[in-house]
Amino acid sequence: MRRKKAWKRGLLGVAAVLAVYLFMTPMGALRLGVALSGHPKEAVCLRAQTAEEVGYHDDTGPQSTLYCISESVPYFELTGTPGQNWEVRQIGPFRYAVYYGWA
């Protein structure tokens, strides 16, 4: 009985830590956005920088940041374009990512 409770608490703790990473950090939100767009392998392996670090002008607003993926860029088959630029938006403590298009 104790062992079962320990497993449940352990899994609950891991789920809570994962949720905090995915919804409250910029890179976690970016990885979740890329994975939900149908590119889970690229989401795990990606490396990204902010637009200012790359040299682009970020005009997305005060509650969002533009990120440019430099490694493991997802490729959209339907449009035939790489999904390199993503906007991470913030609402309160929560963040989520959407595809931005060309910067």
Written description of the protein model:
There is one protein chain. With 103 residues, the chain is an alpha+beta fold. Helix content is 43%, strand content 28%. It has helices at residues 2-24, 26-36, 40-45, 51-54, and strands at residues 47-50, 64-71, 75-76, 81-82, 85-91, 94-99. A four-stranded antiparallel β-sheet has the order 1-2-5-6. It has a two-stranded antiparallel sheet with strand order 3-4. α1 crosses α2 (26-36). The longest helix is centred in the N-terminal third of the chain and has 23 residues, at 2-24. It is elongated. It starts with a helix and ends with a strand. The mean pLDDT is 89.
Instruction: Round the Cα radius of gyration to an integer and report it.
Output: 16 Å
Percent range for β-strand residues: 25-35%
Q: How much helix is in the residues?
A: 40-55%
Describe the largest sheet: 4 strands, antiparallel
Backbone shape: elongated
- The unreliable regions are none
Order of helix and strand elements from N to C terminus:
HHHEHEEEEE
User: What topology, given as strand order, has the largest sheet?
Assistant: 1-2-5-6
**Number of continuous helical runs:** 4
Average pLDDT across residues? 89
- The count of DSSP E runs of length 2 or more, i.e. the number of strands, is 6
* End-to-end CA span: 56 Å
Structural category is alpha+beta
